[in-house]
């Protein structure tokens, strides 16, 4: 049985805040080309909840959702700062991990669409790491 989660988050500029509740079904790192374009990075990192509810604590008027025509790929975001925000599809919710105010109490479940992985991503484990700007 999936565990129940409550997640709180907000956008970068603080205009939008939310609380989401639902049954945890997965925390996936998606490497598809849609998620690469959507995030501007190597992958999307999303927590999925089913039977979910979301309460927009503030700023819902600044929320916009875009669905890529002919696909199931959708992205909700703040009109002011562009931050990715949760997208509700019926009672299934996709929550971008980066918009959470606290780290989710779980680790990623799996990598998805690895055949589309950015060519430079496998080398990431071999490059230097800095705690702040070098």
From TrEMBL:
It comes from Gallaecimonas pentaromativorans. One of its GO terms (molecular function) is metal ion binding. It comes from the Bacteria. Residues 7-121 form the CENP-V/GFA domain. This is CENP-V/GFA domain-containing protein. Keywords: Lyase, Metal-binding, Zinc. Pfam families: GFA (PF04828). The keyword Plastid does not apply. Belongs to the Gfa family.
């Amino acid at each position: 049985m999936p565990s129940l989660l409550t997640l709180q988050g907000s956008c970068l500029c603080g205009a939008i805040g939310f609380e989401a509740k639902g049954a945890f079904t997965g925390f996936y790192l998606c490497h598809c080309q849609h998620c690469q374009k959507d995030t501007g990075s190597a992958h999307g990192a999303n927590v999925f909840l089913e039977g979910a509810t979301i309460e927009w604590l503030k700023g819902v008027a600044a929320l916009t959702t875009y669905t890529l025509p002919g696909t199931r790929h959708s992205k909700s975001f703040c009109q002011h700062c562009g931050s990715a925000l949760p997208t509700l599809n019926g009672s299934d919710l996709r929550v971008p991990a980066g918009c959470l105010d606290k780290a989710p109490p779980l680790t990623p479940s799996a990598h998805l669409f690895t055949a589309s992985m950015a060519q430079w991503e496998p080398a990431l484990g071999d490059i230097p790491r800095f705690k702040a700007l070098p």
